[in-house]
Specification:
One of its GO terms (biological process) is regulation of inflammatory response. It is built from 9 helices and 9 strands. By secondary structure, it is an alpha/beta fold. The chain folds into 2 domains: about 170 residues, Ribonuclease Inhibitor (Leucine-rich repeat, LRR (right-handed beta-alpha superhelix)), CATH 3.80.10.10; about 80 residues, Leucine-rich repeat, LRR (right-handed beta-alpha superhelix).
Length: about 260
């Protein structure tokens, strides 16, 4: 039915349908035939790396018009990111990729850096900056609930600083951020003029880390409009500091309800 030329379905939600790698070959064939399907949700299905490989083969095809692909809780590891990196370089339509709550670690971010071809940057070392720069459609990137630490944070921050990065919404829920990496992140969102929303839900930040972020929020070049952070978990001093930031910047909202 989805392959029929008269099919006009634009959004297909298949979360928690017990879809495995074996079924991904059939789903991939739909992606290269259906010119209307813009959103495909496969959350909480055990696709694993084998299923992701088949989906990525279709997502790289110029005929694929998919824009939104939520893949939370799909049992993906860094191996899947080898294929996803190629999609980020090739796809002209994909604008939202959600990889929350998988088994990604620092190696996964490194894998995203190892694409074999970067058309716009032929003479530069391929890294995550190049991946984000070459995919101008990618506006929303969610990497929450993955065990990404020092190396991953460093590479992501460098990617955000790339002048061609177009990411507008970044989700880092439940990451382990030290004060040092709060500084790297703060530096990034004073440079990345496209970044409008940053989710830091369920992240334990110490006093110094919050102060660093607030100093960046007060920077003239910071374009951030929404910061996902639960003010109630901090002491009174930090709560007052965050509230003062909102009062000083009317365009800024700090809330765990974002």
């Amino acid at each position: 039915m989805l392959k029929h030329r008269a099919c006009s379905i634009e959004e297909l939600m298949l979360g928690m349908c017990d879809i495995t790698a074996e079924a991904c070959e059939e789903i991939a064939s739909v992606l290269v035939c259906n010119k209307k399907l813009k959103l495909l949700s496969l959350v909480e299905n055990p696709l694993r790396n084998e299923g992701m490989l088949m989906l990525c083969d279709a997502l790289k095809r110029p005929v694929c018009v998919l824009e939104t692909l939520p893949l939370m809780c799909c049992c993906l590891t860094s191996v899947a990111c080898d294929h996803i990196s190629q999609v980020l370089l090739c796809s002209k339509s994909l604008s939202l990729l959600d990889l929350q709550s998988n088994f990604l670690e620092d190696d996964a971010v490194t894998s995203l850096c190892e694409a074999t071809e970067v058309p716009k940057l032929p003479h530069q070392a391929v890294n995550l900056s190049a991946v984000l720069a070459c995919n101008e459609k990618l506006k929303i990137l969610r990497l929450g609930s993955n065990d990404i630490q020092d190396v991953g944070v460093k590479q992501l921050c460098e990617a955000l600083k790339h002048p061609d990065c177009k990411v507008e919404h970044l989700g880092l829920d439940m990451w382990q951020l030290t004060t040092a990496y709060c500084e790297a992140l703060a530096s990034a969102f004073t440079v990345c003029t496209s970044l409008k929303r940053l989710n830091l839900h369920w992240i334990s930040l110490n006093h110094d880390g919050v102060v660093v972020l607030c100093e960046a929020l007060n920077h003239l070049d910071c374009a951030l409009q929404q910061l996902g952070l639960d003010k109630s978990v901090f002491d009174k001093e930090i709560q007052m500091l965050l509230t003062a930031m909102e009062e000083k910047n009317p365009h800024l909202t700090i809330s765990h309800l974002l």
